[in-house]
Amino acid sequence: MGKRRYTDKERELAFAEYAVCGNWQAVSEKLNIPVATLKTWWKNKPPDDGFDDIRRENKIGFIEEAGAAIENGVRLINRRIGRALQKEQELDELIEEIFSDDDRSAKSKQAAISKIEVLQLHKLNEISTAVGTLYDKRALAKGESTENIRISVKLPKEVEKYAE
After folding, report:
1. Buried (b) or exposed (e) across 121-160, using 16+ Cβ within 10 A?
2. H-helix or E-strand spanning residue 158
3. pLDDT for 20-69, tens place per residue?
């Protein structure tokens, strides 16, 4: 079976799709062209294919949007923590009320528990995970490291003069 021939239009469309999403696998699935073929085209493309500016603009746009989303996530986390701190006294009172009232019906206890659930801090871990993921993706887009690579060594005073 012979190799499939692709048109210049298909090649240009693949490059345009890649300029938008930056993911060869997604382009491959959308256009039904093997990833290896796409990468070969990319490697052998003319130096200025006209898509470099589009890719750069999309990257800058992503960096800006990710930064805004990170700021929003951090604000949301801070608001939820602040709300939880403000409602802490009310939570303690509700918990005490539930446990101390033996005459309270199961329905009444459930209603009180529902109040507590509304006041509790929910899904903070999901928000922080999303913020962390966006932070890493933004760092990668900016060409920065996504891990803490700084190492500091504290030497004893007697040895410090030899380290200089």
Report:
1. eeeeeebeeebeebbebbeebeeeeeeeeeeeeeeeeeee
2. helix 157-163
3. 777 899 899 999 999 999 999 888 877 666 667 777 787 788 888 888 98
Q: What is the C-alpha to C-alpha distance for residues 59 and 37, in angstroms, rounded to an integer?
A: 24
Please provide the distance, in angstroms rounded to a whole number, between the alpha carbons at the two ends of the chain.
Answer: 69
Token pair of 148, please? 């803490």
Q: Which two tokens stand for residue 35?
A: 């990833």
Token pair 């999309």: residue = 58
pTM > 0.70: yes or no: no
Residue whose structure tokens are 């030899």:
162
Name, in order, each residue with C-beta under 8 angstroms of 109's C-beta and a sequence gap of 6 or more.
98, 101
